[in-house]
């Protein structure tokens, strides 16, 4: 299978139609076209010329600057490398899009301008009324229809000729019918409203399609290969199992492997979600994508990049995003039945009375065209988008960014919320939770003097505690860092040790102190011990700090109707249990790698509708797998891009309000649909005695549309909370 990037897709329903046409080509049976990712997969034998012609019918095209031509039997690494290559050509891609004039962003801008011009012309025609020549009035309406509805008309005409019945088909017949009976005003309004719907449906999709590209920017691009004593910078994709690489302080580890030389602390948050750095020494395993905090490590690569932890994360996100299209499928199914039914009813109204009941053809043609206008799905189309846009606006005022209407609807349906721990329920920053002091005079002063020049996360936590206690520090006379264990320093002429308990091998630790160390470790705390040559001066118990609002938010969510709250974390079970009990979640799971989180989300998804909240790269696969992904605003770019909703204020405080707004939006949408359908049914029943007039059809359609719009706008009413 070959893989290509497609741009210019106008809607999910259109993408499904294009996919169906491509499948009808020779060797095209296995073709797939994803609207969410803009990705087309084809058998290599399919004619690309024919495919491009099909795509062109919907103003879509293959972006050759970002095309990924990857055989299915190639490794994932080749695909990722091709992705990276595409990134190197982003500027060219932009030129290509501009040349075609079909980029989604450009398309939205063009649509907005056309709708504004169309609305101005329509209002001018309405207010002009009988004061201008009829030909001028008709010309204004015609220009407005062409500007706002020509693409819909052309698509509907093509579908009609191919006997494919969609909403576009009905809109084309409605436009033609309204014009045929001289109702230019109604025809113009139909074109304008449908153009608005298309615009609302397409807003924000480009960001969703770029989630994979953003993730790929996180991946290391190069590695330092050590061979025959010579350092060589090589592309990441060229690494293979058995290679020896050098990773300096601040650099990313290129792939999964084992430390062969050196000691350091490694930030594995991107992979495991562990907020605190993990000490690594000879023989310790490391994950690709982790960051070396200090020192120099020599790592023996055990997996080629395409098989590494980070590559698996990227693949999981890609897979999950391609399968998340239930709403688009539902809309397409609804249109498939609704449109032909309205057309059949209109045809029966026109034909049956004259042929079987001796009715007048002119009267029943009039009635049939009125049915088409009544059946026009304007109110139905606007039942959802205006309520959704209002809900999105309301949430934005409260600091919640919702990336699309389907995600707002989904937020109102969830009954299970899964939380990542690090950076979500907690701040993702180490802080001193407990402090055991044996020498009050020297403990904080010595610790502060040693750690004041360090940028290590644990050092920052200790310095914050020292500052909070207003303890004065001095500069050490001499200092030696032993990577992975701690520091030996001379302060005011005396030698001190600072680090984990293993660094205190020069001391005989009393039983009561050992018991205290074991107790702190049992609580899931990371220890930093300070000692002189004779005894331990004290110790810090450091943990990730829980957000102040977490407990209250969990309680509010339960009251708002969320049945179950679950915490998923890469931290060990003891830490997970402690945090879960403090914040009040229903259940928790620890020691989870990204693929474990995905499995747990899928398991929870079988029991209800699940949303996942996280902030790290390691959360991205779970965010994409859940029915709804929610990211913290100061999380990694990949998590934010992959997520469907972003908490812009970087805390959970506004989440319960967002859920309430979403539930209200869903209630209004259901009401709007029932109201608009009910009014149409009543109007259609009036055709039985022949009482349905064109003016009643116009007023009922416009009235339903206006009423639905006003009801939808009530979502905006309420106190803004920023």
Automatic annotation (TrEMBL):
It is a multi-pass membrane protein. Pfam families: E1-E2_ATPase (PF00122), Hydrolase (PF00702). The keyword DNA repair does not apply. It comes from the Bacteria. Residues 218-318 form the P-type ATPase A domain. The chain crosses the membrane at residues 111-129, 135-154, 337-358, 364-389, 668-688, 694-717. It is found in: Cell membrane; Membrane. It is an enzyme of class 7 (translocase). Its EC number is 7.2.2.21. Residues 72-105 are annotated as: Disordered. It catalyses: Cd(2+)(in) + ATP + H2O = Cd(2+)(out) + ADP + phosphate + H(+). InterPro entries: ATPase_P-typ_cyto_dom_N (IPR023299), ATPase_P-typ_P_site (IPR018303), ATPase_P-typ_TM_dom_sf (IPR023298), ATPase_P-typ_transduc_dom_A_sf (IPR008250), ATPase_P-type_domA (IPR059000), Cation_Transport_ATPase_IB (IPR051014), HAD-like_sf (IPR036412), HAD_sf (IPR023214). Keywords: ATP-binding, Cadmium, Cell membrane, Ion transport, Membrane, Metal-binding, Nucleotide-binding, Phosphoprotein, Translocase, Transmembrane, Transmembrane helix, Transport. Belongs to the cation transport ATPase (P-type) (TC 3.A.3) family. Type IB subfamily. NCBIfam families: ATPase-IB1_Cu (TIGR01511), ATPase-IB2_Cd (TIGR01512), ATPase-IB_hvy (TIGR01525), ATPase_P-type (TIGR01494). This is Cd(2+)-exporting ATPase. The lineage of its organism: Bacteria, Bacillati, Bacillota, Bacilli, Bacillales.
């Amino acid at each position: 299978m070959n893989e290509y990037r497609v741009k210019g897709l106008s809607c999910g329903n259109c993408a499904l139609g294009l996919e169906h046409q491509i499948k009808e080509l020779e060797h095209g049976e296995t073709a797939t076209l994803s609207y969410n990712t803009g990705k087309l997969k084809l058998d290599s034998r399919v004619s690309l010329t024919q495919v491009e012609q099909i795509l062109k019918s919907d103003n879509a095209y293959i972006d050759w600057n970002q095309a990924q031509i990857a055989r299915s039997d190639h490794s994932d690494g080749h695909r990722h490398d091709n992705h990276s290559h595409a990134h190197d050509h982003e500027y060219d891609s932009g030129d290509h899009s501009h040349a075609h004039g079909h980029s989604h962003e450009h398309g939205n801008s063009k649509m907005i301008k056309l709708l504004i011009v169309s609305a101005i012309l329509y209002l001018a025609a309405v207010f002009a009324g009988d004061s201008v020549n009829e030909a001028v009035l008709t010309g204004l309406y015609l220009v407005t229809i062409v500007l706002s509805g020509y693409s819909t008309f052309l698509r509907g005409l093509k579908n009609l000729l191919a006997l494919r019945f969609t909403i576009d088909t009905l809109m084309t017949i409605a436009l033609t019918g309204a014009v045929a009976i001289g109702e230019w005003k109604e025809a113009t309004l139909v074109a304008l409203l449908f153009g608005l719907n298309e615009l609302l449906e397409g807003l924000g999709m480009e960001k969703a399609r770029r989630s994979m590209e953003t993730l790929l920017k996180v991946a290391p691009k190069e590695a330092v290969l050590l061979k025959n004593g010579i350092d060589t910078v090589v592309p990441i994709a060229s690494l293979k199992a058995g290679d020896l690489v050098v990773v300096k302080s601040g650099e990313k580890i290129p792939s999964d492997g084992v430390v062969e030389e050196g000691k350091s602390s490694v930030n594995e948050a991107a992979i495991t979600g562990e907020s605190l750095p993990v000490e690594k020494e000879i023989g310790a395993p490391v994950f690709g994508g982790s960051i070396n905090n200090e020192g120099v490590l020599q790592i023996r690569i055990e997996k080629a990049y395409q098989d590494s932890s980070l590559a698996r994360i990227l693949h999981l996100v890609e897979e999950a995003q391609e399968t998340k299209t239930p709403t688009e499928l539902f809309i397409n199914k609804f249109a498939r039945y609704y449109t032909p039914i309205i057309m059949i009813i209109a045809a029966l109204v026109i034909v049956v009375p004259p042929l079987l009941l001796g009715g007048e053809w002119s009267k029943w043609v009039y009635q049939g065209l009125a049915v088409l206008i009544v059946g026009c799905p304007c109110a139905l189309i606007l039942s959802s988008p205006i309520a959704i846009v209002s809900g999105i606006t309301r949430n934005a005022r409260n600091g919640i960014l919702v990336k699309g209407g389907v995600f707002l609807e989904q937020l109102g349906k969830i009954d299970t919320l899964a939380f990542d721990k690090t950076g979500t329920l907690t701040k993702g920053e180490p802080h001193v939770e407990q402090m055991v002091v044996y020498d009050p005079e020297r403990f904080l002063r010595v610790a502060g003097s040693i750690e004041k020049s360090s940028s290590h996360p644990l050092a920052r936590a200790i310095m914050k505690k020292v500052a909070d206690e207003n303890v004065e520090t001095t500069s050490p006379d001499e200092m030696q860092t032993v990577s992975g264990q701690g520091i030996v320093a001379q302060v005011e002429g005396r030698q001190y040790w600072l680090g984990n308990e293993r660094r205190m091998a020069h001391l005989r630790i009393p039983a009561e102190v050992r018991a205290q160390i074991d107790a702190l470790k049992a609580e899931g705390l990371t220890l930093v011990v300070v000692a002189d040559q004779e005894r331990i001066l004290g110790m810090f118990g450091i943990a990730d700090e829980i957000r102040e609002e977490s407990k209250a938010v969990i309680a509010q969510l339960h009251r708002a109707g969320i049945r179950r709250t679950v915490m998923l974390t890469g931290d060990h079970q003891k830490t997970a249990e402690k945090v879960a009990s403090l914040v009040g979640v229903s259940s928790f799971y620890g020691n989870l790698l990204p693929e474990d989180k995905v499995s747990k989300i899928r398991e929870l998804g079988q029991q209800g509708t699940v949303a996942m909240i996280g902030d790290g790269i390691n959360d991205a696969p779970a965010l994409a797998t859940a029915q709804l992904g929610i990211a913290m605003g100061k999380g990694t770019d990949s998590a934010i891009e992959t997520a469907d909703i972003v908490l812009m204020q970087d805390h959970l405080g506004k989440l319960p309000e967002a859920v309430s707004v979403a539930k209200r939006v869903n209630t209004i949408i259901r009401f709007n649909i029932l109201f608009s359908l009910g009014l149409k049914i009543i109007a259609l029943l009036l055709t039985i005695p022949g009482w349905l007039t064109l003016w009643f059809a116009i007023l009922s359609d416009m009235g339903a549309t206006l009423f639905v719009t006003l009801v939808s706008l009530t979502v905006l009413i309420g106190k803004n909370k920023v």
